[in-house]
């Protein structure tokens, strides 16, 4: 691959024409210049945002590739559609309310070319978080390189707008899953499960803005996305040790129950409670089968000696 590959930057947009302009400007002012910018419009064709983008965007930015889908298909599918028509050997994503700092792509390309990590599937960076009034809340410094697949099960290492990756890796992994939320989380999990490694630029090169109003209005989508993500994760957790598997299930159930209570959704409260009860019953039966019954039939001393011998074999 070239030391200065063409990077296709993909911005899906929905309902944010004003902030979109700031996102576009942050791409246009990158110090790295080998860029193809694709804006894919996820608004319905009869919406005011679509009309504004269609009539004004191409005039203001004649060098961008503007794709008008004409209907709302969701950010994940929009990104996947844009990748299909992209020309770059590298892909980067930017949400339409996030902003890149000027050296974001330059530093990531340099690291991709010269990293000590082999078989790199993705480069990310640190993030600065701002509230809706543009007050800085915090910086996120997740420092994971190599293949931290076990970490990714329990926490999302990074977000979509930080990612830079080869297009062929994106396609091999299958693109973003078509979920209501958590697409970046599952995408990175799939990438790591495929055996690819990651590395990071240890600088906050992206500004993300938190919008309280959207998190309230999209409460059902948030709950549905959490549930869908939960189902995908549960289909994958067989690779985890039993203890971590149980811990992850408890964590997922708590997350769903917390959101269901917060948004006062009876359906998902019921689902979360049933799952928690089933997991509790399973753990009680496991303890009963593995510990109580052997002690009853063979005696406590013999069982303890047996468990200690197993621990010795595992840790030696």
TrEMBL record:
InterPro entries: Glyco_trans_2-like, Nucleotide-diphossugar_trans. Keywords: Membrane, Transferase, Transmembrane, Transmembrane helix. The chain crosses the membrane at residues 276-295. This is Glycosyltransferase family 2 protein. One of its GO terms (molecular function) is hexosyltransferase activity. It comes from the Bacteria. Residues 8-138 form the Glycosyltransferase 2-like domain.
């Amino acid at each position: 691959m070239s030391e200065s590959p063409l990077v296709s930057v993909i911005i899906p947009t929905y309902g944010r024409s004003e902030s979109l302009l700031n996102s576009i400007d942050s791409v246009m002012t990158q110090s790295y210049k080998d860029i193809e910018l694709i804006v894919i419009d996820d608004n319905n064709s009869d919406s005011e945002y679509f009309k504004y983008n269609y009539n004004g965007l191409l005039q203001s930015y004649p060098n961008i590739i503007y794709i008008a889908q004409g209907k709302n298909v969701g950010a994940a599918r929009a990104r996947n559609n844009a990748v299909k028509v992209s020309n770059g050997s590298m892909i980067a994503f930017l949400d339409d309310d996030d902003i890149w700092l000027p050296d974001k792509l330059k530093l990531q390309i340099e690291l991709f070319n010269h990293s000590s990590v082999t078989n790199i599937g993705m480069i990310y960076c640190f993030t600065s978080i701002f509230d809706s009034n543009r007050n800085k809340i915090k910086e996120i410094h997740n420092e994971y390189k190599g293949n931290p697949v076990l970490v990714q099960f329990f926490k999302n290492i990074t977000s979509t707008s930080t990612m830079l990756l080869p297009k062929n890796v994106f396609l091999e992994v299958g693109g973003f899953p078509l979920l209501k939320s958590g697409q970046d989380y599952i995408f990175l999990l799939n990438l790591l499960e495929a055996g690819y490694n990651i590395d990071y630029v240890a600088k906050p090169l992206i500004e993300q803005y938190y919008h309280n109003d959207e998190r309230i209005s999209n409460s059902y989508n948030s709950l549905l996305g959490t549930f869908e993500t939960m189902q995908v994760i549960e289909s994958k957790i067989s690779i985890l040790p039993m203890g971590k598997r149980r811990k992850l299930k408890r964590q997922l159930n708590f997350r769903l129950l917390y959101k269901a209570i917060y948004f006062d959704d009876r359906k998902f409260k019921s689902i979360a409670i049933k799952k928690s009860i089933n997991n509790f019953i399973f753990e009680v039966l496991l303890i009963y089968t593995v510990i109580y019954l052997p002690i009853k039939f063979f005696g406590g001393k013999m069982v303890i000696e047996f468990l200690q011998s197993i621990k010795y074999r595992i840790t030696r």
